[in-house]
Design a protein that fits this description.
By secondary structure, the protein is α/β, with parallel strands linked by helices. The protein is about 30% helix and about 20% strand. Strand 18 (about 455-460) and strand 19 (about 465-475) form a beta hairpin. The chain is globular and about 75 Å long. Keywords: Nucleus.
Length: about 475
């Protein structure tokens, strides 16, 4: 496979990057790829993401942000140490080898569910315990459990007549007669595998899990077993077909390349309204491949992404082709786009992200902006800190702005005396960067925020590296500013 490197550029003849031969970079990519494989320690590698592409992107990122050849080598070795630490942790984990989720559409697995009812919520576990108990003694207990679960535990049992105990309800299936919307509402609070198990109790065709409006698929619920997780999620999406819509998809993955296709199907086929995707933060950032995932949707309202790499084309789709998008949260991610612009976005949160370019935020309807970095020091994985500038443009509707992040500087675009840029701003949180250049950034905010009521400064004490907050409640009389 031919490797194509991106990042850094050769620069001039005296640039240190031009002195590193391509075969040297190829060998380092190979070392990174081997370290990634050892960190995962897979029994079946078919569930892994394309490790070679991950290694190439990782090396290119380090090559691009390093300031010297020494810094480049240091960052490489630091990342290798981090991957070796993951590998050591994996050897200490005791992962179960049971697999009950190879094909969730098959009735053969119904009998296997009985051994797993301990994993369910208490009410569901009680219900299943009654179903799989001794057939000679289950009638009264099952009916009682069913009625109690459906009534929230407040049902009074019918008094026995004579020496014969009577069940609190007849032999009919009371749970299956509930309206589908009620059952779907109950399922929305369950993990996806519990939704599948519970659906088998209902006499419905097709099973209710195939039309559940909310899916919570978390690899933590599978003891971090990527093989079981991949098989379950694949069967789940295949069993839903193309007609059923999704209100919310929560997907927590760990080095599963197929996750990008599941996200793409949720947007394209199921018209999902809310996506919450997290790649395990111990692992490398998940690449949102624009060829596999299209965020172009008129239904998408909320997007939360954690530990991902977002390129310009993905940002363009979120900004220009999601006309209903109102909430966007990016955490522990790498942002490769120079601009976030949207005509519908109301809430924007950027937390602990690596910003590779100067970032222009142009969101006319934005009400709340949060841009912060809560990490203390440079961890092995996040060896590059945010140093780019943030440029704020057209935030006349913003009521709350939080900018404690250690960015290089914040710039303001298109500010005119007759139309204050922050005319609706009432709450402002800033970091110590606002005190630079003789308090010029702070003075600029105060000058262009006529409605500001609360100013909170997050300052750092150098001696003990602790932070304290200074809150200032501004007087109604703003003539002094």
């Amino acid at each position: 496979m031919e490797l194509v490197f991106d990042g850094g550029g050769a620069g001039g003849a005296n640039n240190w990057r031009s002195q590193i031969r391509e075969e040297v970079r190829v060998s380092r990519v190979s070392v990174l790829s081997e370290a990634l494989m050892q960190a995962l320690s897979p029994d079946k590698p078919e569930t892994l993401t394309d490790l070679l592409n991950v290694a190439v992107r990782l090396e290119s990122l380090i090559f691009g942000v390093a300031v010297s050849e020494v810094d480049y080598k240091y960052k490489l070795y630091t990342r290798l140490d981090h991957l070796e630490g993951i590998s050591s942790d994996n050897h200490l984990e005791d992962i179960s080898s049971d697999d009950h989720f190879e094909d969730i559409s098959s009735d053969d697995h119904f009998e296997e569910i009985s051994s797993d009812y301990q994993m369910l919520e208490p009410s569901t576990a009680t219900l299943l315990r009654g179903i799989f108990s001794d057939p000679q003694s289950q009638s009264i207990q099952v009916q009682s459990n069913l009625h109690r679960v459906l009534s929230g535990g407040n049902t009074k049992a019918t008094a026995p007549i004579g020496n014969e105990e009577k069940p609190c309800c007849d032999d009919n299936d009371r749970i299956s007669v509930l309206h589908e919307s009620i059952l779907h509402c109950i399922m929305s609070f369950m993990p996806a595998q519990d939704v599948v198990r519970t659906s088998m109790l209902f006499r419905r065709s097709p099973p209710l899990w195939t039309s559940a409006p909310c899916l919570d698929i978390d690899i933590d619920h599978f003891d971090m077993d990527r093989v079981k997780f991949n098989k379950f999620a694949k069967s789940l999406f295949e069993g839903r077909g193309n007609a059923n819509t999704l209100d919310k998809l929560r997907l927590h993955s760990f080095a599963i390349d197929a996750a990008k296709y599941w996200i793409g199907d949720a947007i394209r086929l199921h018209k999902v309204k809310s996506i919450d995707f997290t790649e395990n933060t111990r692992w490398e950032a998940f690449y949102l491949d624009p060829e596999a995932i299209s965020f172009s949707s008129k239904y998408l309202q909320t997007v939360k992404l954690t530990n991902v790499i977002i390129v310009t084309s993905v940002f363009d789709q979120l900004s220009r082709e999601c006309e209903s998008l109102e909430n966007l949260q990016l955490a522990d991610s790498t942002l490769c786009s120079p601009e976030i612009s949207s005509s519908s976005l109301k809430t924007l949160e950027i937390i602990n992200c690596l910003v590779l370019n100067h970032l222009l935020i142009r969101t006319g309807k934005l009400v709340s902006l949060c841009f912060k970095d809560t990490r203390c020091g440079c961890t092995p994985k996040y060896i590059v800190r945010t140093t780019s500038a943030v440029i704020l443009c057209d935030l006349s509707n913003a009521k709350s702005i939080e900018l404690p992040t250690p960015v290089r500087h914040v710039a303001f675009d298109r500010m005119t005396p007759g139309c204050p840029m922050f005319i609706s701003l009432t709450s402002l949180i800033l970091g110590e960067w606002c005190l630079s250049n003789k308090f010029a950034p702070l003075a600029c905010f105060l000058k262009h925020s006529p409605m500001l009521e609360n100013l909170d400064l997050k300052l750092k004490v150098v001696e003990d590296t602790q932070c304290f907050s200074l809150s200032i409640f501004l007087a109604e009389d703003r003539n002094s500013y």
